[in-house]
Amino acid sequence: MWALVEDNEITKIINKPKGLVIGDTRHSRKIFEYWSKEEKEAIGIYEVIFDNSNKKDEEYYINTNQSFDYSDGEVIASYGSATPKALTDILWTQEDSDNEDLPDNKEIGDVKVEGLKTKHKRIIKRKASGLLTPTDWYVLKATDVAEYSVPSEVSTFRTNVRTRSNEMETAIDNASDVDALKTLYEYTEQADGSFARPLGEFPTLEI
Fold first, then answer.
1. How far apart are CA 62 and CA 55, in angstroms?
2. Which pTM was predicted?
3. Closest CA relative to residue 32, chosen from 24, 41, 87
């Protein structure tokens, strides 16, 4: 990405090489490939330098649009301060109803925007369900066949999956802010050289 700078002001952002007119001169798109940095800058074309120091994980934050600034012979593209996404559900309110913003199929108190906690807990539930489904047949067989019982290792596994799912959801609920929620998923090296995350892992079954 480049920027065209004229009279110390950015007048155009160039996303990909293309022909362009600067002053009275038409330049081929090939100048972006063959001209040196100094040659391009001599006619006002500067390669954009990206400053992502304010950019945050879009799973948890809403980033601003990039802004472009020319200073000291450089064009910098940067972000403003990111806004944390809603941690808990945002509900439709009486004010929404009074302003006639409440949809016909919604009521006051219904979820307007799902918070991160709701979304993450739903993922945990789906993961737990996916782990339990392959062993459901053991339970069904034990229900239909009187002399059959679910193997102990399967029963233990199913119990442990439900327990861990509840623990994970509790940890998510207890997150005090977006950064605390994000930290639950971050792996760090342990004393034994392994990597683990605060949220923990689901158990596995080997039979």
1. 9
2. 0.80
3. 41
Structure tokens at 187: 């792996």
Q: Ramachandran region of residue 175, left (φ > 0), alpha (ψ -120 to 50) or beta?
A: beta
- CA atoms in the 13 A half-sphere facing the CB of 161: 21
The one-letter code for the residue type at 40 is K
- Going residue by residue through the chain, which has 207 residues, state the pLDDT in tens, using 9 for 90 and above: 999 999 999 999 999 999 999 989 999 999 999 999 999 999 999 999 999 999 999 999 999 999 999 999 999 999 999 999 999 999 999 999 999 999 999 999 999 999 999 999 999 999 999 999 999 999 999 999 999 999 999 999 999 999 999 999 999 999 999 999 999 999 999 999 999 999 999 999 987
In one-letter notation, the amino acid at residue 173 is D
Pairwise CA distance, residues 156 & 152, whole Å:
6
Domain boundaries, the chain: 2-83, 85-114, 115-207
